[in-house]
DNA sequence: TTGACGCATACCCATATAGGTATATGATGA
DNA sequence: TCATCATATACCTATATGGGTATGCGTCAA
């Protein structure tokens, strides 16, 4: 009787990056590996919070981690973002080629609505 | 003291497209406007469900709607997806240029982990 | 005006978070 | 072995959903 409330963030890259903090983490990792504590500090959030977000990112494969002495360094593995980039890219024609037409179309919709 | 559980889907495009059904809707709308009932049918879900997803998409601006007689036609306005496309594009170098290096790096991480 | 049709909402539920705090785990160094 | 540092987890709370069902509302046709 599983009454799904929402797809688990851990199951999908789209969900993983839906959280602003996690997107911030990915951006921070673009410049290189970082230990959890440093990420937590840069995010301005408690360490446990950062660890939890990192866990989600790890489970969807957007980050990789390795131990380094007492620390655990997290590194970016952005390959999973490619899927999102390509999916959104599938709509590119709707914001480029057909922009004028689309804008006109949207204006029409707005007018039609105001006319109610 | 608002204890945010999660950013509202209605406030952000990233959240809006985190839901599979909503992504399906956007894909369906690529071929043109559609009345709610038809979308619900194609999604294989009750009409109220489709309406709710459409509402979220409307609130983040990914779809526009207009009345047409007794029906309400929903149309795609993919411009908001551009932001997502560009954000993910900011990581492109990590899955193209540096692929070999990255893959090697990931392998190292895995080995390091197995070596524990 | 009335009845049917197409949607949007109101509710009710169970679940999945995001956060914060306290605590268990692991690893390092004296 | 013991104290300490760096993380990961366990809990607990308030919310935000997604889904299903019943129902309100506006529009159109007879």
List the helices and strands and how they pair.
Two copies of one chain form a homodimer.
Chain A: H1 13-16, H2 20-28, E1 34-35, H3 36-43, H4 47-59, E2 63-68, E3 71-76, H5 81-89, H6 92-95, H7 99-114
Antiparallel strand pairs in A: 1-3, 2-3
Helix pairs in contact in A: 3-4
Chain A binds a DNA duplex (30 and 30 nucleotides) through α4.
Summarize the structure.
Two copies of one chain form a homodimer. The first copy, chain A, is α+β, with helices and mostly antiparallel strands and 116 residues long.
> What composes the largest sheet of chain A?
3 strands, antiparallel
Q: Ends of chain A: how far apart?
A: 44 Å
Uncertain segments of chain A = 112-116
Oligomer, anyone? Answer: homodimer
- Helix and strand content put the structural class of chain A at alpha+beta
CATH hierarchy, class of the largest domain in chain A: Mainly Alpha
Run of helices and strands of chain A: HHEHHEEHHH
Task: Give your account of this protein's structure.
The first copy, chain A, has 7 helices and 3 strands, in the order H-H-E-H-H-E-E-H-H-H. In chain A, a hairpin with a 2-residue loop joins strand 2 and strand 3. In chain A, 54% of the residues lie in helices and 12% in strands. Chain A has 116 residues and is an alpha+beta fold. The first copy, chain A, starts with 12 loop residues before the first helix and ends with a helix. A 3-stranded antiparallel β-sheet of chain A has the order 1-3-2. The longest helix of chain A has 16 residues, at 99-114. At the A-B interface, helix 2, strand 2, helix 5, helix 6 and helix 7 of A face helix 2, strand 2, helix 5, helix 6 and helix 7 of B. The structure holds a DNA duplex (30 and 30 nucleotides).
